[in-house]
Amino acid sequence: MATHTGQEGYVVIGATLNASNSIGELKSWSVTETAATIDTTNLIATATTHALGQTSWSGNATAFLDETDSPQDLVLVGSSLTITFAFEGFTSGDDYMQGTATVTSRGESASVGGMAEINFDFTGTGALTRTTIA
């Protein structure tokens, strides 16, 4: 099993996988996939049972604010984006996750002794696909 350092990750806005479409000054990202369950327990059961319901995904990202970074400018509340999360890069054998997401929040902050930051939350619409670059 391969491991990766956090400094290898990318978040790409748009369908073209390359570093120039990635959010600049990226600090962190996370994606969570969930599956709903549907209770199928009957009245005489001694234990609960369930069936698989719908799946969903959501996540967030944080970067240092850079008003000259075009991908950061595309992350607007209410926008629908093709978004890609790459653990290591865009060369043969590298894995990534991609899907369409709606930006549900965008925040910008600054503090004394710190850097100005941008963060955004998103909710996937449709499936999140996992792919290895050939």
Description:
There is one protein chain. The chain has 134 residues and is mostly beta strands. The protein has a single domain (6-31, 52-132), classed as Hcp1-like (Pnp Oxidase, Chain A, Roll). It contains 1 helix and 6 strands; from the N terminus they run βββαβββ. It has a 6-stranded antiparallel sheet with strand order 1-4-5-6-3-2. Strand 5 and strand 6 (117-132) form a beta hairpin. The relative contact order is 0.24. The model has no long low-confidence stretch (mean pLDDT 91).
Present the secondary structure layout.
Elements: E1 10-13, E2 26-39, E3 50-64, H1 70-74, E4 80-86, E5 95-109, E6 117-132
Antiparallel strand pairs: 1-4, 2-3, 3-6, 4-5, 5-6
Q: Find the CATH superfamily.
A: Hcp1-like
Strand content: over 45%
**How many structural domains does the protein architecture include?**
1
CATH class: Mainly Beta
Number of helices: 1
Helix content: under 10%
| Annotated CATH architecture | Roll
- What would the principal axes of the Cα set say about the shape? globular
Cα distance spanning the termini:
18 Å
- Which stretches are low in confidence, meaning pLDDT under 50 for 5 or more residues running? none
Q: What value does the Rg take, in angstroms?
A: 18 Å
> Which secondary-structure class do the elements indicate?
mainly beta
Give the tags.
134 residues; mainly beta; Pnp Oxidase, Chain A; 6 strands; globular
Task: Give a quick summary of the entry.
This protein has one helix spanning about 70-75, and strands at about 10-15, 25-40, 50-65, 80-85, 95-110, 115-130. With about 130 residues, the protein is mostly beta strands. The longest helix is centred in the middle third of the chain and has 5 residues, at about 70-75.
